[in-house]
Design a protein that fits this description.
CATH class of the largest domain: Alpha Beta
Number of helices: 8
Radius of gyration: 18 Å
CATH topology of the largest domain: Rossmann fold
Largest sheet: 7 strands, parallel
Oligomer: single chain
Number of strands: 7
Structural class: alpha/beta
Helix content: 40-55%
Length: 256
Amino acid sequence: MRVAFVTGGGRGLGRAIALALGREGMAVAVAARTLAAVEATAADVGIAGAAATLAVAVDVTERASVEAAIARTVAALGPVDVLVNNAGIAESAPFARTTPELWERHLRVNVTGPFLTARAVFGGMVERGWGRIINIASLAGLHGSPYVTAYTTSKHALVGFTRALATEAGGKGVTVNAICPGYAATDMVWNGARNVSARTGRSFEDAVATIARLNPGGRLIEPGEVADEVLRLVGDDTINGEAVVLDGSAPRRRTP
């Protein structure tokens, strides 16, 4: 039985990923900053077919919190075989209004968080000769975008971290990869569309369509597409150090 640990698992991409791993019969720990955010998802993952589930509170920016969450998972489910670093934040601001606090917040959550969680499980994966670390990055981790300097920088760093750790994992039965989706059908887009609508007077539906057109494929990425890619990376032992692009150009795949 494989054990998976999914951060930011209460909603959106994290929820879809946790459900997909559960349907594969894994034991799944669903983690977020508060238990209330993940208890419902953990229950649904169990219904989906998971061997076992666990709702875990974790602050990915704090080493002690990460180590405690991993220790609780190991005690309840067993050693972590699959780590999905999905927790992240995205705030926009022109560079002149990008404060040091906003900058540091993005680096702590989007880069230090994956570093701490990976550090907590990587050694055990190497010892057992099998492991999968999958970092949910972004198209913004591969090119520049205006008004999201902190977010773009953090996602570039996450892709670099992925590639660097992959070189250490090579030949040890462990793979480290990143998935880089464009704008996805999650709360991040819905909230952004509401803000656009409030500022411009345009309808919410029109604002969503405008955001969708920013993806090369002209549509939003469905959470199930990201979850499908996670399953592919879990099952493939030859892909390592890749930044897998999901930009809406390919046909839609299964969506939970």
